[in-house]
Each structure stands twice: as structure tokens, then as C-alpha cells.
Amino acid sequence: MQLAHTVWAVGEDGFLVKFHGVRGSTACHGRDTQRYGGNTSCVSMHFGNVSPIIFDLGTGLRYLTSDVSESKPKPFVGSCLLTHLHWDHTQGLPFFPALLHRDTVLDIYAPKQNNGCSLRDAFVTKICPPTFPVSIDEFDATINFHEIGDDEFLIGDAHIVSRLVPHIGPTLGFRVTVDDTAVTYLSDHQQPLGEFSITKGARQLCQGTDLLIHDSQFTPAEFAEKNDWGHSTIEFAMWVAETTSAKRLALFHHDPSRTDEQLDVLTARLVGVAQNRGFEVFAAADEMSVRVPHVVSEL
Length: 299
Ligand SMILES: [Zn+2]
Ligand SMILES: [Zn+2]
Description:
Elements: E1 15-21, E2 42-47, E3 50-55, E4 77-81, H1 87-90, E5 105-111, H2 119-124, E6 142-148, E7 151-155, E8 158-164, E9 172-178, E10 181-186, H3 200-206, E11 211-215, H4 220-225, H5 234-243, E12 248-252, H6 260-277, E13 280-283, E14 289-292
Parallel strand pairs: 3-4, 4-5, 5-6, 10-11, 11-12, 12-13
Antiparallel strand pairs: 1-2, 1-14, 2-3, 7-8, 8-9, 9-10
This protein binds zinc ion (2 copies).
């Protein structure tokens, strides 16, 4: 199995969704994880004439653009829908090459914090000496912060729905819709203890979506040990997809200990199950591209 590097392009018949980082909690590296990749959460989508939309700013963000290895970074103009401020979803921001270009404008939409701290201050106190060489305000780029909660708004022609979802601390899920085609990004999502259920807000995000990107960090045995860590099992992700009539499910936010072989086995077992329940399932991988509504996974 070989990873294909897909040229960044506007989808001719739908969205082009690209996975740049699919791990949860922390980045990982090694022979056992190299096919699915070790970068943390970052996904992007291009469609029509709308500026790119990024989901989360994990370490995969560094590979969003093709100029990682070049000495002169290119500008980037676009928006980020940020689920929450945990490290695995924000650590890529100071290493995003485009922040070194003065024509870069990045609009970050993220949950309003409940500790009285503004969103901007949360980043200012996070990206600064001594834990980073410079302050976030010293980058040449313009970064605009937008505090949101349960909201609906437009980015270009894209209709965005954000809903607070169960996790640890203020956390959002997102649904992006253009021309009746929808992508739902529901990364860190606390599975309820006991019987499966879904909050009204999470259901609104998922119902009938064309592609559901969902937390699937744990096996049931792992969840039994870590049931208050804010995450879901693969089985719960499957149930959410089925109960909300999602058309495709991308297993996402893989545990850093999950090997390529384990993901192969888990996914192979689920393909037939999902088919019987009326949807498709696949495990997301770094550098995988998916065209929505037509899935073309390049793993
Ligand atoms: Zn996470
Ligand atoms: Zn988290």
C-alpha cells in the first residue's frame, strides 16, 4: 500500500477533503504507524471559489501547503474551524510556514473559553517564550480570532454550523454545507457511559451528512479504562453514522498506539458491517484525499 501525494485542487464535482493529520493526543512516529501517519488533527477542504477551510491546527498543518521545504513561504488566505485548544489540535500553528508571510490572513473560529480568558489571549499565552522562541504577535501574518459557540455563519458560500459537543473543556463540532452537500467534522467527542446516545447539537451536525469525520480513538477495552478521557470507540462512531444516516464515515483521531496493521484489521472488519447499515467506512490517513460526494481514497 502506497500513499499518493495529491495535488491540491478545487473539486470539479464536490469538495476535495484532504487529511494532513489523523492522530489523536500526540504525534507519533515509527515503522508501525507510517502508512496511516503520525501527525495530529488537521483536515482541509477546497470547493468552488471559496477560500480553503481548515479543520484544526494539529501538527499536520505544516503539510497543508507544498512549500514546507522551501526557504520562501507562500501566503495563505483562509479560515480555520478549530474544535478546541488542546495541544494536539493547535500545536501546528506556530510551525505553519505561511505565518512567515505578511500577506497571509488566517481567520480562526474557535470556542469561547469559559475561564474569562479571550481566545486571542489563550494563544498569546501559549505561543510565547520560553516555550516558543517568539510571541504569536511577532509573526508577519495577520491572524484574526473569532469566538463562537452554538452558531451558524457563512464563510464565502459555505454555510457553517457549529455546536458545542461533549469533550473536556469547551469543544465544538462543525458542519460545512455548500449546495446541499455537507461535511461534518466531529473530532474529540466524549462517548456517553452506558447506552449509546447523541446530543441534539451533535445530531444536527451529523444528520444525513455526506462525510462524517468522527473520533474513533478507542477500542471497547481501552474505553473501559479511559472512559472519561473525552473520546469515542470505533463502535460508537459506527453507531453515530448509522443513527444519523450519514453516507460515509471517516474513522479519525486514531490513538497514537494504534498500528497500521491494527487499523487495517479493524477497518476490514467494519466495511461489510457498514454496508449492511447503509453507509461506507474507511480509516483516514495522512495525505489521503477524499472527493465528496464521490469518495476517491488514495491510500
Ligand atoms: Zn484531540
Ligand atoms: Zn481534546
